[in-house]
Automatic annotation (TrEMBL), chain A:
Segments of this protein annotated with the region Disordered: 150-240
Listed name of the protein: Outer membrane protein beta-barrel domain-containing protein
Transmembrane segments: 64-86
Polar residues composition-biased segments: 169-196
Lineage top rank: taxon: Bacteria
Species assigned in the record: Fibrella forsythiae
Keywords: Membrane, Transmembrane, Transmembrane helix
Residue ranges, compositional bias (Low complexity): 153-166
UniProt KW Transmembrane keyword: yes
Automatic annotation (TrEMBL), chain B:
Protein name: RNA polymerase sigma factor
Top-level taxonomic group: Bacteria
Pfam family, one: Sigma70_r4_2
Domain RNA polymerase sigma factor 70 region 4 type: 116-165
Similarity-based family: Belongs to the sigma-70 factor family. ECF subfamily.
Keywords assigned: Sigma factor, Transcription, Transcription regulation
Record-annotated RNA polymerase sigma-70 region domain positions: 22-88
Length: 631, 183
């Protein structure tokens, strides 16, 4: 008996000849959707490989090779894309993502209640901070002001004008006004601030709008990016948001007589840029660039609503009261949730009969028995140990910080930069049921990153100026680890490693002498995870993983000169980290499978001992690829 | 018309045209089989779809040791049984061995009845009875084989078949009476 007979056994008896004859040649035309469904499933089946464009016709061996090759290529491509997305300079990071909306704010200089009365040149500052949202679109929605066209070079038009430039409210300074913003009184006192008037200081391309802001004596420039809005121009009640990425921004709002509102942007090259706002039925704004080389033509800006031109539509009193002063506010954007969709397209079940429910014993006995597996693979991830000076040691640290402040800098003492890590892993998975499993393993991780550290002042004039070890970070780590290479550094009190009053030491540190110090961490990792796997297709599995990872510290090589080991008293021998991820597994046969997983790992405790003045909490986001052998 | 061996060879090469031709040739017959087991036509179509997907996936296992049509029908029957098991229709089936000894003889009047009428008769049977009747009377499986296929006892299979035959004969008798009265 061949294998097909095992799957589909032949009958061993004799059918009823009458009934068999009655149904023997029975024919019933199936609906057309049946073949379509068959084709669809065949297209998704193994004959087409992983990638749709990858056809396998030469035989099973080459098909297998093709699948693996395609899988590896896809993994590398995903890794490269993730790496690029993380490192590109204009990427919007969580810590830099801000929602900027604008809202009318009653100004002391506004003549509320008088729509068409000349208000005169009113200069209002738009204070852009990283924590305050501003709801300017409410202005537009209330007064049916939705769409305004902003054009450059029209700031001279008489009437209502609102200009964004560099100015303090009511503190206009003639002579310092932005070119083109020729409204009397329109001024840009912040123009002298570096960054606000420096040509080319505000890079802006595409949909990015560079603006400048002057509030008090602080000037900042930045860029405003339009966020995607599916309801743009349709829902006037929904405030539009743009992303404001601060560099150094100065925003000036000017208002004059009831004329077409004008938004004046401070251009990077010193040339004048202004935007004329016109009313439309939606809240989107078309911006025609006046930023010279900085802004592209016909770029669109949504969500900014300024004073409508008096000639186009009447203005409500509230509108008038709020038009003369506009305030920008910045809100942290809530991160979008990752939408997980099931793979493929399952057939829709249209009907389910109301039959009695009980599982037959045969069906129970034929349930697929899950088996354990072992895996081997590697992972590439970002690596950020977030090294910082522990706040608990504020006396010494504050002293040094004050010293640094005295030197004219407010930069943090240590800046840990994002690095990269590579891990090699061997794992073991034990199924607990149809969906659940417990996984553990052993891995080796090598993570590298850079720490920006203030250098020793004493080294500025010495021959050791260029040495990467003459800085605060290396001194702290090296001395804590009792490295002989740092005998020349400032002395410390024996047994109190952090007693390192930098302000009182001869070797003080200055951020003006920043040095980049490389770290190379090595860990042995032992993860313990619980997984819940779904099998949307027979050969595909999608698993959600979460658990803990114990990171066994091996060593850290600092500046390629100092090696700190677990026994040196700086780093904890073992630290715990929480991990979560999602794994896609492709299983071409019963014994082998390949997995691609995205993982996130966050250290739950500092990598260093509590009595050490440094702290480090490792965070990793990466992608892993593994080959699994199922027993 | 391509012979079966050519069609099967083409399907083994995953040639879509051969698969389509095989489908066109046997889909009608297999759909009739599916409708004998699955009362709902939409569900029967789903089972037919799954059957052909299974056929094309396992076509390498067919070695011409039996007619292709018979093999295809077995695949369809197996798929239909698997579908039925999801709804667990065999739980409350009666297990009375005494009934199995009262199996009636075959009805010789069947050939005069058309397919659609007989199909309606079979489809009106309860799921458990219908399944056992199909497997025993039409496919030719023995009661031990049916018991293994459905995960029931042999006595249950016999009793379900007895019940099915009784229901069918009762229905045939009633319909015959109606026809006689109408004439």
């Amino acid at each position: 008996m061949n294998r097909s007979d095992d799957l589909f056994p032949q009958p061993g008896g004799t059918p009823d000849p009458y009934w068999q004859r009655a149904f023997d040649d029975a024919f019933d035309t199936p609906p057309p959707r049946v073949w379509e469904g068959v084709e669809r499933q065949l297209d998704l089946d193994e004959s087409d490989g992983i990638l749709p464009l990858w056809q396998h016709r030469e035989g099973r061996q080459s098909m297998l090779f093709g699948r693996w090759a395609a899988g590896i290529a896809a993994s590398l491509l995903l890794t490269a894309l993730g790496w690029w997305a993380w490192h590109r300079e204009d990427a919007i990071r969580p810590d830099a993502r801000l929602a900027v909306t604008t809202a009318p704010v009653h100004s002391a200089t506004a003549e509320s209640g008088t729509l068409l009365a000349p208000v005169g040149p009113v200069v209002a500052s738009a204070e852009a901070t990283q924590t305050r949202p501003l709801h300017l679109p409410q202005l537009a929605s209330t007064h049916n002001i939705a769409r305004r066209q902003v054009r450059s070079g029209e700031a001279q038009a008489a009437g209502h004008e609102a200009a964004i430039g560099a100015s303090t409210p009511g503190a206009s300074t003639p002579g310092a006004s932005t070119p083109g913003a020729s409204t009397p009184g329109a001024s840009t006192p912040g123009a002298s601030t570096p960054g606000a008037s420096t040509p080319g200081a505000l890079p802006a391309t595409g949909d990015r709008l560079a603006v400048a802001e002057k509030a008090g004596n602080q000037a900042r420039t930045g860029s405003v990016n339009e966020l995607p809005d599916r309801q743009s121009g349709e829902n006037n009640d929904t405030p539009h948001t743009i992303v404001f990425t601060e560099t150094t921004t100065t925003i000036q709002v000017q208002q004059a007589a009831p004329q077409p509102a004008t938004l004046v942007g401070v251009q990077p090259s010193g040339s004048h840029s202004s935007f004329r706002m016109q009313s439309f039925s939606t809240q989107s704004i078309t911006v025609q660039s006046g930023f010279g080389q900085g802004l592209s033509d016909n770029m669109r800006l949504r969500g900014v609503a300024l004073v409508p031109p008096a000639s186009e539509q009447p203005m409500a009193p509230a509108m008038d009261a709020s038009a003369d002063r506009l305030t920008l506010a910045v809100n942290p954007l809530a991160p979008k949730q990752l939408v997980i969709r099931p793979l493929g397209n399952d057939r829709i079940v249209w009907y389910r009969s109301n039959e009695a429910t009980a599982e037959p014993t045969a069906a129970t006995s034929k349930k697929r028995r899950e088996r354990p597996w072992v895996s081997a693979g590697m992972a590439a991830s970002s690596f950020n140990p977030a090294v910082a000076v522990r706040s608990a040691f504020s006396p010494a640290v504050n002293a040094s910080q004050n010293y640094l402040n005295d030197l004219g800098t407010s930069a943090p003492m240590l800046q840990s930069q994002l690095g990269r890590a590579v891990a090699f892993q061997a794992g073991l998975g034990i199924p607990l049921g149809e969906h659940w499993s417990v996984e553990t393993g052993l891995g080796y991780l090598n993570g590298q990153n850079q720490v920006q550290s203030p250098g020793r002042i004493s080294s500025l004039t010495s021959s050791a100026k260029s040495a990467a070890t003459n800085n605060l970070y290396v001194d702290l780590v090296g001395r804590l680890a009792s490295q002989p290479a740092y005998a020349t550094a400032a002395p410390i009190t024996s047994g109190v490693a952090y007693d390192y009053n930098l302000a009182n030491q001869a070797s003080s540190y200055a951020s003006s002498a920043q040095q980049s110090v490389g770290n190379s961490y090595q860990f042995v990792q032992v993860p313990v995870q619980v997984g819940y796997e779904l099998r949307p297709r027979r050969k595909f599995g999608l698993a959600l993983l979460t658990g803990m990872v114990s990171n066994w510290f091996v060593r850290n090589t600092v500046a390629e000169a100092v090696t700190i080991k677990a026994g040196d008293g700086v780093y904890r021998p073992v630290t715990l980290a929480g991990t979560a991820g999602m794994r896609l597994r492709y299983r071409p046969d019963h014994h082998w499978s390949a997995s691609v997983a995205g993982t996130f790992q966050q250290s739950l405790q500092s990598l260093t001992h509590t009595d050490v003045s440094l702290q480090a909490n490792i965070q990793q986001v990466g992608l892993s690829f593994s080959v699994d052998r199922h027993f | 018309m391509l012979d079966e061996r050519t069609l099967v060879d083409g399907c083994r090469q995953q040639d879509r045209l051969s698969q389509r031709l095989l489908y066109e040739r046997f889909a009608g017959k297999l759909f009739a089989v599916c409708k004998r087991y699955i009362k709902d036509p939409d569900e029967a179509a789903d089972v037919l779809q799954d059957s052909f997907v299974k056929v094309f996936r396992h076509i390498d296992q067919f070695r011409f040791e039996c007619p292709l049509e018979a093999w295809l029908k077995r695949v369809a029957i197996n798929t239909a049984l698997k579908h039925l098991r999801k709804n667990k229709p065999f739980e409350h089936m009666t297990d009375v061995d005494e009934l199995a000894n009262m199996l009636p003889q075959a009805d010789e009047s069947l050939p005069s009845l058309n397919y659609q009428y007989l199909l309606n008769l079979v489809q009106e049977l309860p799921t458990g009875c219908r399944t056992v009747f199909n497997l025993y009377a039409i496919e030719g499986y023995t009661h031990p084989e049916i018991a293994a296929l459905l995960g029931i006892s042999e006595g249950t299979s016999k009793s379900q078949f007895f019940r099915a035959r009784g229901l069918l004969q009762q229905k045939l008798t009633d319909d015959q009476s109606i026809r006689n009265e109408s004439f």
